[in-house]
Amino acid sequence: MKNIFAISLLTIVSMVSYSQCVKGNCHRGHGTFLWEDKNKYEGFWVDGKPNGFGNFTYQNGDEYKGGFVEGKKDGIGKYTWKNGNTYNGSWSEDAMNGEGEYIWIKEKAKYEGSFKDGKIETIEIETTIETPEKNSQ
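Predicted structure:
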């Protein structure tokens, strides 16, 4: 009786918490990996880490399509947040770094320019000052 209970408990625990390669080769090649938190990566793998082009879908609804190097976002890629905002551009060390375009859907706004460590690097605002001309008096 104890053995049946232990086997049943292990079966339930293994069904509730699992992380596994569900398709292909998730060590070296192309495969799909599903984490126990429901995050999913489909793409190329090297030494058990995302490497090359892939698609990472987060359990919260966010999605990243683009380059990876040793498991980190790197190269050109597009990140789409569940609210519809997007960043399309350069990535390194798992953050927006380099030139890119960020679009805020709700605000209908767009920024094109430099990003560093996941943030807009600089914003230049041009102002025009109108001065009366000498002959207009």
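Summary: Strands lie at 20-24, 29-34, 40-46, 49-57, 63-69, 72-80, 86-92, 95-104, 109-116, 119-120.
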